[in-house]
Specification:
With 418 residues, the protein is α+β, with helices and mostly antiparallel strands. The protein contains twelve helices and 16 strands.
């Protein structure tokens, strides 16, 4: 799959190809979780495409795939371009992979022009950004950025009870060597991530591309409300210690707090489990996740504090107990002003109006900012729909994104040669 697609359109077609088994764990939908056979199959296919684009390819110690197109001198610092290859359950085909495929497309254009730059280009497929298998997310870009503490994640288990350490071993990796994936700042000139917007702004304004100013702060927490399991038929309502209704009150409290918030404060309960989970058993406990985000960590943290207090008050009033456990915290991440201006000028080269916007979605770029300056290009997606099989992007917008990335590379080259 090379010559019969225009640059950018080929990237989209490759995402489509990876949208089904063996690159998905489930027939009829896209679910590709970290360190699964579907993940491995996708890396095999990406290795072929990266190699044919003129890159040397390696798997790093953390489960990332790294393609490298050398600069005019060996071991030059790299412009890193990439995004994640994992997906949420029953997700869309472009959230993540499109940023990888566009990277391959723009490298292939350099190779086709027999062009060598004052920097290398690396295309990275991060293995775990979504956290769709293990509770922590962004573990792979954190490994590359050198900010991952393996001890904090290796014991985490997936829905089948497999630990992250065992999953690494099963994937052919050594869980004791993950930190070998860390890169030095001197190796990284900049990080560029192209990604669908996953929101409605660009489409609403009739724009194909936008440039990201900053990525929102987020926290992931697990809540457990504990009561007493009992018989659904014989236990009078007044004598119950039922965590179910308590959890409902807590979730409504989260919604109310976020609706009244500022700074694009949002709160989501994406996972809710009653235990033991039988029709005729009053749950002994209910667990639910909370994903709380805002443009600033201060607003995020104030919301976490307020909802935690409400959860404990609701549990106490009902004679229950509650625990709120922080699973992950990611600070807001401003994109580099210089690179962002360069990216905006590159979009302008296409005759498109500049449009800067914040990202409510998390991205590997927010983690890579610990390693090097970052920039993000947003691509319009239909209805702003994402984390949903209806996720869609047009060939024309992917072609514009590739062209903007090529102009960005030209500008970076001029800066480096100045
Ligand atoms: O959750 C996010 O924002 C991203 O899709 N991982
Ligand atoms: Mn996502
Ligand atoms: Mn994504």
């Amino acid at each position: 799959m090379t010559g019969d697609f225009e640059i950018g359109a080929r990237a989209r077609a490759r995402c489509d190809l990876l949208g089904a088994p063996p690159y998905s764990e489930v027939e009829g939908q896209l679910t590709r979780r970290f360190l699964t056979p579907a993940h491995n199959a996708a890396l095999e296919r990406l290795t072929l495409w990266m190699t044919s684009a003129g890159m040397t390819v390696r798997r790093d110690a953390a489960g990332n795939l790294v393609g490298r197109y050398e600069g005019e001198t060996p071991n030059a610092p790299a412009l890193m371009i990439g995004s994640h290859i994992d997906s949420v359950r029953n997700g869309g085909r472009y959230d993540g992979p499109l940023g990888i495929m566009l990277g391959i497309d723009v490298v292939e254009a350099q190779r086709d022009a027999s062009r060598r730059l004052p920097f290398a280009i690396e295309v990275i497929a991060f293995g775990d950004e979504e956290g769709s298998r293990f509770p922590a997310s962004m573990s792979c870009s954190r490994a590359i950025a050198g900010t991952l503490d393996p001890a904090a994640v290796l014991g985490m288990t997936d829905a089948e009870g497999v630990t992250l350490a065992d999953a690494f071993t099963a994937f052919g990796l050594d869980p004791d060597r993950i930190t070998d994936a860390a890169r030095k700042p001197v190796e990284a000139l900049a990080f560029l991530e192209a990604h669908i917007e996953q929101g409605p702004v660009l489409e609403a304004e009739g724009l194909a591309l936008g440039v990201v100013t900053a990525i929102a702060a987020q926290k992931r927490l697990m809540v457990r409300i504990t009561g007493m399991a009992g018989h659904a038929g014989t236990t009078p309502m007044a004598l119950r210690k039922d965590p179910g209704p308590a959890a409902a009150e807590c979730i409504l409290a989260l919604e109310r707090l976020c609706q009244a918030g500022t700074d694009n404060l949002v709160g989501t309960v994406g996972r809710l489990t009653a235990l033991p989970g039988a029709f005729n058993v009053i749950p002994g406990a209910v667990e639910f996740s909370m994903d709380i985000r805002a443009e600033t960590s201060a607003t995020r943290d104030a919301a976490v504090e307020a909802v935690t207090a409400e959860i404990h008050a609701i549990a106490a009033r009902r004679g229950l107990s509650a625990s709120v456990t922080l699973m992950q915290a990611l600070s807001e991440s401003p994109c580099d002003p210089g690179l962002t201006a360069m990216l905006e000028a590159a979009v302008g080269h296409l005759g498109l109006p500049p449009r800067r916007l914040p990202s409510g979605a998390g991205h590997d770029a927010m983690v890579m900012a610990a390693l090097c300056p970052t920039a993000m290009l947003f691509i319009r997606c239909e209805g702003g729909i994402s984390h949903n099989p209806a996720e869609s992007v047009t060939e024309a917008d992917c072609a514009l994104a590739a062209q903007a990335m090529l102009h960005f590379i030209d500008k970076l080259e001029r800066r480096e040669r100045a």
